[in-house]
Amino acid sequence: MTLCLRASVVIFFILPAQLFAQQNIITVGIQYKPVFTVDFLNTKAETVSQNAVNFSIGLNSGFAAGMVIRRGITDRYSIEGGINYVKRTYEMKVSEGNVSERSQFRIIGYEIPLSGLVYIQLSEKFYMNASLGIAADMFASDVTTAGTFVKMYSLRKSVINAGVIANLGWEFRTDKSGYFYLGASYHNPFSDIYRTRMEYDNNATHEAVEVPLSGTYFTLDVRYFFPEEPIKKYKNPTQDED
Predict the structure, then answer these.
(1) How many angstroms from the chain centroid is the CA of residue 11?
(2) Dihedral of CA 118/127/29/61: which sign?
(3) What's the pLDDT tens digit per position in 123-152?
(4) Angstrom distances, CA of residue 75 to CA of 24, 79, 170, 171
(5) Which residues pair with 219 in a beta bridge?
(6) Lowest-confidence segment of 110-119, 172-181, 233-242 by average pLDDT
(7) How far, in Å, CA of 231 to CA of 222, rounded?
(8) Of 140, 182, 184, 180, whose CA–CA distance to 165 is shortest?
(9) At residue 30, does pLDDT exceed 80?
């Protein structure tokens, strides 16, 4: 279990009850999440050596951006969902002796997460939260690219993949200006998202390998939530006449 997942689980079950009242509030926000690679979080490159030809492919960069909707259930817990546009940029490297070639390609997808959140109040306006949930990843198409000596074909394992998503962050909350959020997220699909075939063809050397792409990524999250009023319960006007 990763550090982010461990922190989420601990906060879900151990935090004290001094929390900001979120009950009956729907908060809408926007977010931008640059993608980073962290080796111990299973985002490192896949490498294969075959008959003196070295193949490597891995996540290089990317970002996720979209909308966040948060619904307060109790004073302690909320549910958070939304939709994100996700661009993963991968780098492929192939070498044989003094010959080497590298190329980048993008995988475009859409992410629909659903998480449970829990809060802790750190000061009058600062809050800490953690979330844990699932996400559905939807991918637009297969991908192919070619260079001087190398061809690459990356095929979707499925149009829709499910995965776990965990988050840890901090918020500065104001009544009139909304919430300002900074945190980090870890997204890990339950299965590989693409299957990639790399082919090397140079003079008399012809080699091909197949490797999986996991789709796992780590992000830093910047969010802004618009100020919202509590949801008012509907009251039948005829009851006032009685």
Answers:
(1) 20
(2) negative
(3) 889 999 999 999 999 998 999 998 889 999
(4) 9, 12, 17, 16
(5) 35, 185
(6) 233-242
(7) 26
(8) 184
(9) yes
| DSSP assignment of 80-142 | EEEEEEEEEEEEEEEEETTEEEEEEEEEEEEEEEEEEEEEEE-SSSEEEEEEEEEEEEEE---
Q: What do you get for the CA distance between the two ends of the chain, in Å?
A: 59
User: Going by C-beta distance under 8 Å and a sequence separation of 6 or more, which residues neighbour residue 202?
Assistant: 96, 99, 149
Q: Around 70, how many Cα atoms within 13 Å sit in the side-chain half-sphere?
A: 27
Question: 123: Cβ–Cβ under 8 A, 6 or more apart, which residues?
Answer: none
Q: What is the pTM of this model?
A: 0.81
For 16-81, give the secondary structure using H, E and C.
CCCCCCCCCCEEEEEEEEEEECCHHHCCCCEEEEECCEEEEEEEEEEEEEEEEEEEECCCCEEEEE
Give the pLDDT band (50/70/90) at residue 23.
low
Question: What would the mean pLDDT of 22-31 be, rounded to a whole number?
Answer: 83
8: helix, strand or coil: helix
Instruction: Please list, in sequence order, all residues whose beta carbon lies within 8 angstroms of the beta carbon of residue 219, skipping any fewer than 6 positions away.
Output: 33, 34, 35, 36, 63, 64, 184, 185, 187
What is the rounded radius of gyration, in angstroms, for the C-alpha atoms of the chain? 23
How far apart are the C-alpha atoms of 46 and 194, rounded to whole Å? 13
Residue with tokens 């546009």: 85
Q: Which H or E element spans position 185?
A: strand 178-189
